[in-house]
Amino acid sequence: MIIEAVLRALSDPTRLRIMRLVAAMELAVGEIAQVLGQSQPRVSRHIAILCDAGLCERRREGSWIFLRLAGQGNGAGIEGAIRSLLETAEDADADFGALCVADRRRLSAIRAARENQAQEYFAAHAGDWDELRRLHSADELVEAALARALAPAPLGHLLDIGTGTGRMAELFADDAIRIVALDKSPAMLRVARARLQHLGGERVEMVHGDFASLPLEGASMDTVLFHQVLHFAQDPAAALREAARVTKPGGRIAVVDFAAHQREQLRERHAHARLGFEDRHMAALMEQAGYAPASPIALDEGELVVKIWIGTRHPAERRAA
């Protein structure tokens, strides 16, 4: 019986802690092992039991395995009831709650260290970022395809997340009412500011900020762009939810990134947190954030396939329902 497998899976305190860790975001198995202070093979055995019970799902990305809650966190069925029960247990059981809080604190420290490593990489390569991009794809073809994909509707107020050297802001400056060029790296912003200084502050605003917590008001942007940025996100779902928060109803998001691939060197040498995205995964991420995804566009002229995913923000009445 399904319920027997579920109850057996939840009979171990380590598995309860794993369930609470992945309740907020998809995590690599190695991250979970670090947080729990256990060997990866031991953690993998616990994960196998959770997956066999239908409580969690694995996703392979190169040599890494990611774990997420089953059902994409929709709150339905047994999985949703278990999530609610564990939330209540964390509040009601002081010992269990303390363990969960400590686990999340350790996870935050691990992620902060990785983000710092990525920021060091960004700063080191700020001057030649465009050149690095050209090594992976034909930028001119991608830019033309992106412009065509966005052409049917006005760009309005455009947010360029992870502006880098400012190339996207420069490309769309004549078509947008105003552009907010945002980047977490001060070194990148200095390069972008030098590149875009001829446009003037009334057309392009340079903003220092993180895609995990955008320093913008809700429903303030007509178009949001992630150009070769989302693969740096430790939690792409959270980045898209934050983008959705600032997108007006009927506004659009455009994600330009690599299709799923197996080139581990991009993770090791270029700080990529994700080895591209599958169409199905991206569609699910957009839907969960509140966008209606369109059919993806593929550009396969380079060694790595580049995809353009466009989504339209659902109207306010649908989001409230």
CATH first level of the largest domain: Alpha Beta
What is the CATH H-level superfamily of the largest domain?
Answer: Vaccinia Virus protein VP39
Q: What oligomeric assembly is this protein in?
A: single chain
What is the number of beta strands?
Answer: 11
Helical residue percent band: 40-55%
Q: Summarize the biggest pleated sheet.
A: 8 strands, mixed
Low-confidence stretches: none
Strand content: 15-25%
Draw up the topology in text.
Elements: H1 2-9, H2 13-21, E1 27-28, H3 29-36, H4 40-52, E2 56-61, E3 64-69, H5 77-92, H6 94-124, H7 129-136, H8 139-150, E4 157-161, H9 167-172, E5 178-183, H10 186-196, E6 204-208, E7 221-227, H11 236-246, E8 247-258, H12 264-270, H13 279-289, E9 291-293, E10 297-299, E11 306-313, H14 316-320
Parallel strand pairs: 4-5, 4-7, 5-6, 7-8
Antiparallel strand pairs: 1-3, 2-3, 8-11, 9-11, 10-11
List keywords for this structure.
Rossmann fold, single chain, 321 residues, alpha/beta, three-stranded antiparallel β-sheet, Arc Repressor Mutant, subunit A
What do you see in this structure?
The chain folds into two domains: 2-123, Orthogonal Bundle (Arc Repressor Mutant, subunit A), CATH 1.10.10; 127-320, Rossmann fold (3-Layer(aba) Sandwich), CATH 3.40.50. The protein contains 14 helices and eleven strands. It has helices spanning 2-9, 13-21, 29-36, 40-52, 77-92, 94-124, 129-136, 139-150, 167-172, 186-196, 236-246, 264-270, 279-289, 316-320; strands spanning 27-28, 56-61, 64-69, 157-161, 178-183, 204-208, 221-227, 247-258, 291-293, 297-299, 306-313. Strands 4, 5, 6, 7, 8, 9, 10 and 11 form an eight-stranded mixed sheet that branches. It has a three-stranded antiparallel sheet with strand order 1-3-2. Helix 11 (236-246) links the parallel strand 7 and strand 8. Helix 3 (29-36) packs across helix 4 and helix 11 (236-246) packs across helix 13 (279-289). The chain is elongated and about 65 Å long. The two termini are 34 Å apart. 35% of the residues are buried.
